[in-house]
Amino acid sequence: MQMPSSHPADTEYLVRHAMDTGYMWSSLLAPPAYIAFVVARRGRAHLSLNRVLRATWLAGLSAVTGGAAYVRYANSSEESVRLRRLETAYNMNTLRRNDHSTIGAVLMAVLTPALLWNKARIVNLILGGAGLGSGIGLLTHYGQTMVGDHPPKVDIILPPSPE
Is the pLDDT of residue 55 over 70? Predict the structure, then answer.
């Protein structure tokens, strides 16, 4: 009796991880890039909070497309994808980065509309606030790492593959 392949599940996990990472980085980089672009092209008069928040969540949405990651992992060997998934799943640095980003996104998705209720549209406040929080969480993680608060290293022990 042959065991079912875990390749589709491993591929799905790694594509989801790549999408999360893309969202975090684009949410971090989009607001300053958008602000610099608008100020350089049109001047400060065309800059608004609503537009910055909209650019933040649209950049996060565009980074979530996981097509390239899917093509990469779907066409890789089953063993390499399995090993990559285990490395990703047990990498404490990545887990802490994802946790900080998620906590920041949830907090800012709630706080941004509460603090800036009449300054922008509600959709942009919630989704843009989540994007800003995700970027702030990412900065928090890397700030803690730079200060010296490193997550513990976990050794991965792979079981022998059944043949």
Answer: yes
